[in-house]
Design brief:
Helices cover 54% and strands 19% of the residues. It contains 14 helices and 15 strands. The strands form four sheets. The chain has a five-stranded mixed beta sheet, with helices on one face. The radius of gyration is 35 Å and the shape is elongated. The two termini are 55 Å apart.
Length: 459
């Protein structure tokens, strides 16, 4: 009895009320590392920690403590009262003792002492608020991790291309500068120089207007150009053949340049080739920077940066910006993205950034289910009462039947340890149902899974 009264919850319980609890309790000593309860165990006992410290540990992250419980204290009331499995494992952090109170004795205590009942209820409410706060924080971190990984991957390609292009562009400009010096040293007169400039501009114009060729035709044209360059005495002609051939320059143009430049003929051809290369590099640099700008725009749209939290949103824009953010995962394999949009859907009042979090969770799960192969379908259509319906469907293996009823449980995940937070679908449903008064349902078979979100016309 004295050990039990050390627990604050039981300190003021009448002796006649506490005695049956003490008689029913089973005492157990533990050493550091002992596992006192396993996640998923039936809620048979209410746990009193009499001495020492124990940790609550999630099965998805067995190396990290959710909470440290220091004696004298208690835990397990929520599982016992709701008759649900233990959501966490209880592992000893130090040596100590616990008392296991059978669920029936715990219920009798609650019925007999209203003060204990109130204290347990308050404690459960505190735990629920803490769990919700932790879940929201971890979900934000998980979303931030997904966003950061996607951006890092997507930005790396155009940024690397831009760096390579700048280096090559610097080499081309240096060639142009050297050529001017070579013209002066070779004694090229002003009339010839003016004509060479005209031929260089003609080459650049023809290069800009040239139609792209297939690989075989381009290779044949480069071979012919290399032969012509070699015939006029150009060393290493293959270094100039590609840009000159791509511009569609003919033998007459080539011979005129060589004749006008005289001893500076090779330098003149390198100058024209460098000009053509520089034009192409400028186009590549523009494409790279456009890609970066597009990604930044997608992030701003995804996060609703500098915009009100609630506003009329276009779900198609949200879906597309989310696909852009997850582009690195879509590119890993051969996933086909099918868009079946009802383009005339109206905007709906919503919390845009939160809704994008829903799309992120659903799309991320669908992409993971495909494992790099299959079809991802995004479908939108009109819903009841001028609302909208969004469906995200994959052709993956589906969710096992025995797990389908649990996918919306907090912290539940079908992924391997370390691969899932167990927060996505629970958070997505809360955003859809609680924040937008909509519905989120999941249908899964052996040939795929479909998530259906119904959003009303008014929030």
């Amino acid at each position: 009895m004295a050990d039990l009264r050390a627990v604050e919850l039981l300190a003021d319980v009448a002796p006649e009320t506490l005695r049956p609890v003490a008689e029913a309790a089973r005492e157990r000593s533990f050493a550091p590392g002992d596992r006192l309860l396993e996640a998923g165990a039936a809620p048979e006992d209410f746990l009193l920690v009499l001495e020492g410290e124990v940790d609550s540990v999630r099965p998805a992250d067995p190396d990290e403590s959710v909470r440290r419980h220091v004696a004298p204290t208690y835990l397990g009331a929520m599982s016992v009262l709701s008759d649900t499995e233990w959501p966490v494992s209880v592992v000893a952090a130090t040596a100590g003792r616990v008392a296991l109170v059978p669920a029936t004795a715990f219920f009798d205590l609650l019925h007999a002492d209203r003060r204990v009942q109130r204290e347990v209820t308050r404690a459960i409410l505190t735990v629920m608020r803490r769990i919700e706060a932790v879940a929201q924080r971890q979900e934000r971190l998980a979303s931030l991790g997904t966003l950061s990984a996607g951006l890092a991957h997507e930005l790396n390609n155009p940024a690397a291309a831009a760096r390579r292009t700048v280096d090559s562009l610097a080499e081309a400009l240096e060639t142009v500068q050297r050529t001017l010096t070579t013209f002066v040293e070779a004694g090229v007169e002003r009339p010839e120089a003016e004509r060479l400039v005209a031929l260089q501009r003609e080459a650049v114009r023809r290069g800009a207007e040239a139609e792209p060729l297939d690989i075989l035709d381009a290779s044949e044209r480069e071979d012919r150009m290399a032969e012509r360059l070699e015939a006029v005495g150009i060393d290493e002609p293959w270094t100039l053949a590609e840009p000159l051939a791509a511009a569609g320059l003919d033998e007459g143009w080539l011979h005129e340049v060589v004749a006008l430049a005289g001893p500076a003929g090779p330098a003149a051809l390198r100058w024209v080739a460098a000009s053509l290369t520089a034009r192409g590099l400028a186009d590549e640099l523009r494409e790279a920077t456009d890609r970066i700008s597009g990604l930044v725009a997608a992030v701003k749209e995804y996060s609703y940066m500098d915009q009100a939290a609630a506003q009329d949103v276009d779900v198609h824009s949200g879906l597309e910006s989310t696909l852009t953010i997850l582009g690195h995962k879509l590119g890993e394999g051969s996933i086909e993205v099918v868009r079946d949009y009802e383009r005339e859907l109206p905007r709906i009042p919503a919390f845009g950034s939160e809704l994008n979090q829903v799309w992120t969770n659903l799309l991320d799960n669908a992409i993971d289910a495909l494992a790099g192969r299959g079809t991802l379908t995004l479908r939108t259509r009109s819903g009841p009462g001028e609302g909208i319906v969004v469906e995200i469907e994959d052709t993956g293996p589906g969710i096992p039947p025995e797990l389908r009823d649990r996918v919306f449980e907090p912290f539940f995940t079908t992924k391997e340890v370390g691969q899932g937070s167990g927060l996505g679908l629970d958070t997505a449903r809360r955003i859809v149902v609680d924040r937008h008064r909509g519905t989120l349902d999941l249908e899964s078979t052996g040939s795929g899974t479909a998530a259906r979100v119904v959003l009303p016309a008014t929030s």
